[in-house]
């Protein structure tokens, strides 16, 4: 039977916790003890994700930073750290993390998409973000509703309503097709989550209000 990941994590932390308890209860042990971090970079990321899901962003941030101290080229830790900064509305810091992630994986769709939202929320770097997202959606695997929706929002913020509507319309069309069963009886790719479709519809409605 596969061991529970959380149980495995606690097993690795147990010696560390025992030493801390002994340090507090025995006067002979020096007050300052240097201990090696028992967790791997990946385990710090897993712990950060758990904190992030609970809304404990500062604790999540700490774990992603610890992961990067272990492995400065850990793409997932870099993107997740950017996501925390984005949630904390620290857009400059989020942008810096996403750019570093893109140095590790040039043209990566997820990092580019999240970098675009840092531009959208901050209002800075919109044109650059449009160029990056256009490259993503025109590349292999980039023609996805979530990326097309991001491109539409960028174009709307840049006052390009016709191009924004084109991206939104294609995003919505692909989203509605996803998961449908064609005549051959073979499903399309992964179904489009309902919340993604609602978000696309909300953005199209915003576009119509901005540019009636």
State the total count of DSSP E strands: 0
Structural class: mainly alpha
Strand content: under 5%
What is the global morphology?
elongated
Given as residue ranges, the uncertain stretches (5+ residues, pLDDT < 50) are: 17-27, 185-189
Radius of gyration: 22 Å
**Fraction in helix:** 55-70%
How would you classify the quaternary structure? single chain
Count the domains: 2
* Average pLDDT metric: 86
Describe the structure.
By secondary structure, the chain is mainly alpha-helical. It has 2 domains: 37-106, Tetratricopeptide repeat domain (Serine Threonine Protein Phosphatase 5, Tetratricopeptide repeat, Alpha Horseshoe); 125-180 and 187-212, no CATH class. The protein has 10 helices and no strands. The protein has helices at residues 5-25, 41-53, 57-70, 75-87, 91-104, 109-122, 126-137, 145-157, 161-177, 194-210. The longest helix has 21 residues, at 5-25. It is elongated. The protein starts with a helix and ends with a helix. The model is unreliable at 17-27 and 185-189 (pLDDT under 50).
